Amino acid sequence: MPKRHKFSRQSSKSLFTASLQHRAKSPEFSRSMNKLHHAFTLVELLVVIAIIVMLLAASLIGIQGSKETTRDVRRKADLEAIREALELYKADNNVYPYSNPENACDSSEGSCGTACTSGTNSCGGVAWAAPMTNLQPNFIADLPEDSINDDTHFYYYEPVCNQTSTVCGVSKTCTGINNCCAYELGTQLEADSTWYRVCSP
C-alpha cells in the first residue's frame, strides 16, 4: 500500500506564504501596486486642492465683505463728525454754512452740479470747497473724505437756503438769501448700495 504524505497545517501556511512572496516579487505585481498607489495619491491630491480652493474663495468673500462693512462704518462716523461741526457752527453763527448763490452740491469730490446723486454727476474741482471750508479749523480740524471718493462714493452737503426743499424726507422752508436753516449730509454705502443720510434737527 502506497504511503500517503501528510502535510501539516504549518506546512500549508509556509507554502502559501512562499507563494505570496514569489508573487510580490514579480514585475507585474509591482507595476500593479505602483499604479494603484499613484492613482490613489492623485485622487487625494485633487480632493485636497478642491478643499483649499473652496476655503480660499470663502475667505476672500468674507474679507471683501468685511472691508466694505468697515468702510461703511467709517462713512457713518465721518458724517456724524461733520454734523457735529455744523451744529457748532450754527450755535456761533445762527445759520448753517452757505455760499451765495447756493446752487451746487458741495461734496468731498468737489462740486457735483445741482443735485447730490450717485453716478449721474461729474464731480470735480476742489474737495470740500466753500461753504464747507468755513468749518475749518474752528469747528473741525479736517473735513473727512470718503475712502474711495469717486463719482459713486463721496460725502455731500446740501443746505436749504432761501428755498423750500426736502431733506431726509421732511420739507424745510428757509427764507432769506443767507439764511440756511437746514441741511442734508449723505453718502452711498457699499454693503447694500443704500444712501445713508444725516440731517439737521
Structural overview:
With 201 residues, this protein is of the alpha+beta class. It has one domain. The protein is built from two helices and seven strands. A five-stranded antiparallel sheet has the order 2-1-3-6-7, covered by helices on one side. Strand 4 and strand 5 form a beta hairpin.
Low-confidence stretches: none
Compute the number of strand runs.
Answer: 7
Order of helices and strands: HHEEEEEEE
Cα-atom radius of gyration: 38 Å
Strand line-up across the major sheet: 2-1-3-6-7
Straight-line N-to-C gap: 124 Å
Structural class: alpha+beta
**Can you give the mean pLDDT?**
78
Overall domain count: 1
Strand coverage percent: 15-25%
Largest sheet composition = 5 strands, antiparallel
Shape: elongated
How much helix, percentage-wise, in residues? 40-55%
How many DSSP helices? Answer: 2
Topology record:
Layout: H1 9-25, H2 27-93, E1 106-107, E2 110-111, E3 156-161, E4 163-167, E5 170-174, E6 180-188, E7 195-199
Summarize the structure.
This protein is of the alpha+beta class and 201 residues long. The protein is built from two helices and seven strands; from the N terminus they run H-H-E-E-E-E-E-E-E. The relative contact order is 0.12.
Keywords:
201 residues, alpha+beta, five-stranded antiparallel beta sheet, two-stranded antiparallel sheet
